[in-house]
Amino acid sequence: MKTSVAWQEDVHFTAQTGSGFSIEIDGNQEKGARPMELILAGLGGCTSYDVVKILQKSRQDVVSCVADIDAERSDGVPAVFTKINIKFVVKGRKLKSSMVERAVKLSAEEYCSASLMLERGGVEITHSYEVIEVE
Predict the structure, then answer these.
(1) Are residues 28 and 48 in the same domain?
(2) pLDDT score of 69
(3) Alpha carbon distance 83, 124 (integer Å)
(4) Tens of pLDDT along 68-92?
(5) 22: Cβ–Cβ under 8 A, 6 or more apart, which residues?
(6) How many Cβ atoms sit within 10 Å of the Cβ of residue 108?
(7) Are residues 11 and 44 in the same domain?
């Protein structure tokens, strides 16, 4: 896996992913996301992918899955993440709460590389979920 990050100006950079996508990064948030926001976005994408795939394989009728992520950082330098909470809001038809709970747990404990890497680095990650029935 490769990514290239090129300086544009000031604190603005453009990342070119190995899969061919561009991501704008900006420390001032004027032209792109801050680098630490992208870490949270990567975590959210990784774990959401797991949760959705596990639910689909369990024949759950998922129509929406949103991971709302809140994080705390240390006061010192470097200002690393110390705590992260991921709340999944899963919408679907006749979803079983136990299946959503299982999917979240499997992602957290076995599948999500980003989550496991951050936890091994000392970040406390907690998970919760809400199931919303839709017609």
Answers:
(1) no
(2) 98
(3) 5
(4) 999 999 999 999 999 999 999 999 9
(5) 14, 15, 16
(6) 19
(7) no
**44 and 67 in contact (C-beta within 8 Å)?**
yes
Nearest one of 101, 103, 104, 112 to 40, comparing CA atoms:
112
Contacts of 20 (CB under 8 A, 6+ apart): none
Q: How many residues does the chain have?
A: 135
- Give the strand pairing for 3-9 and 22-26: unpaired
Give Cβ neighbours of residue 78 (< 8 Å, ≥ 6 apart): none
Give the C-alpha separation, 88 to 69, whole Å: 9
pTM for the structure as a whole:
0.94
Q: Is the peptide bond before 35 cis (omega within 30 degrees of 0)?
A: no
Host domain of residue 128: 35-133
